[in-house]
Amino acid sequence: MRGPHNIWRLIRTLATLERTGAIVQVLEAFRAPPRIRAAARVLGWPFKWIGLRGDPALPPLTRALTALGPAYIKFGQVLSTRPDIVGDELATQLKYLQDKLPPFPTAVAKAMIEAELAVPVDEVFSAFSEPVAAASIAQVHKARVAETGEDVAVKVLRPNIERAFRKDLNAFYLAARWIEILAPFSRRLRPMDVIAHFEGVVMGELDLRLECSAASEFGDNTAKDEGLIVPRPFWHLSGRTVMTIGWAEGIGLNETAAMDAVGVNRPAVAARVLTLFLSHALRDGFFHADMHQGNLKVTPKGDLIAYDFGIMGRIDEYTRRVYAEILMGFIRKDYRRVAEVHFEAGYVPPDRDIDEFARALRAVGEPIFGMDASRISMARLLSYLFEVTERFGMETRTELILLQRTMVVVEGVARGLDPHINIWQVARPVVEGYVRKHLGPQAVLRDLALTARVLARFGPKLPALVESQLIRAGNPASPQKPARSISRRWWPLPAVVLALGCGYLLGLWL
After folding, report:
1. Three-class SS of residue 152?
2. Where are the alpha helices (DSSP H) in 187-283?
3. Where are the domains of the chain?
4. Which residue has the higher pLDDT, 491 or 345?
């Protein structure tokens, strides 16, 4: 993590941005202060000769990211969905990164399939195409299963991809450590924890057996969702480096002209992208966390097709309720309640002023209501949120990183389909429905029933537990202790016995 090669990697990153001409675009897109711009140019220029050249046919930033490797490409994929942050020109350039990267030879892909499945490709597939899509981690071929005649998509990892990702991740760790040392105010954002979380996500994406499992679970959860198609995996034709999944034809969500030509209702599709994401996050606690345009397609009827289940998010029931209450508070403009939820969840230190925090949240929320979404600068909004969280000592919630990141990406995708979409109006029915079901009297009854079932599992242990408590209470560690201290050992016993007994009976009844 601390080796000289990581320092060299970071230097080469800056030099590559300088050599390809991308550094100017990046600094302008993020509105870097003049001093930062000058420092970046000065530091990068002496090393310009060691920077990677990339493909001269590509635009500067796309050229730099593709030359630097998979982790940088992943970052570019996220930025491609946010024209409000990086500008329309850069967003258009970066869309190249979603599914149009150079493929590796088909012969190499076939050799990897044969090594993984231990069977010749021609025996399992009666047809096998050249690559139809190539992304940062893998590429996809269209094939036909010899036994059934079904068309499938065969995903194959890029050769040596894990080693390439590891190299980038190690450099990111070093950068995060430097940031924590040189900029102490950034420690509340826990840069090292963020990189560790990203590492877990990425390394999981490099095992396609896990992606098969995610696709299967996601398909089961969403089987009754109207307007969504989730291809099913073929387990017997999948492994660590190969994944076979059903084929589904559609139009890429970045192909707006093609959608218009067949009469797709783009505003309706934009709203569907948002509502489905929120439904999956709140209802299931399991959501597609890589919903850029390259992983979503649409049928002429307007049904969404989801692909690429390598990055999935999962949040527990308690976190879902907190998230829903925060969203609901913003939707209802109840900033006091939003502030209370932050304090109740421990997101804000208890010694801070809740009224002052509520006022700060109002300053964040009010500008986005009653305004055309195309006029809202999410970059300025996020910048102000950063100032507010820094002021009140909030720490980065690593369990919410994927949820927050995906929300940003989904909003960018929806805005690409409908520039005038108002995310709050679209989100309101989904959030209100969840709140009614999970934060009202029904939720209390379900929580009690679940608690009873948990307690019921301890029923067989109840006699031994009571006996152990009696023995411990009757034999204190120190015989010199007064009788009153012995009696204090008894006071939890009736409550424990009553709770376990009632829970056991109720659990049996339920």
Report:
1. strand
2. 191-205, 208-221, 256-261, 266-279
3. 4-98, 162-203, 248-439, 444-509
4. 345
Backbone angle region of 102, left / alpha / beta, with phi > 0 → left and psi within -120 to 50 → alpha: beta
Catalytic residues: 290
Using pLDDT thresholds of 50, 70 and 90, give the confidence band for residue 379: very low
A 10 A CB-CB count for 148 gives: 10
Q: H or E element: which one contains 356?
A: helix 354-365
Which structure tokens are listed for 411? 């909003």
- Rounded distance between C-alpha atoms, residue 234 and residue 152, angstroms: 9
Greatest distance between any 2 Cα atoms in the chain: 90
The dihedral over CA atoms of 410, 412, 417, 420, expressed in degrees to the nearest 10, equals 110
**Among 183, 410, 467, residue whose Cα is nearest residue 278:** 410
Smallest CA-to-CA distance from 113 within 159, 147, 151 is with: 159
Burial group, residue 223, by CB count within 10 angstroms (0-12, 13-18, 19+): exposed
Give the pTM: 0.72
Tokens 């009754």 — which residue? 224
CA separation for the pair 438, 324 (Å, rounded):
10
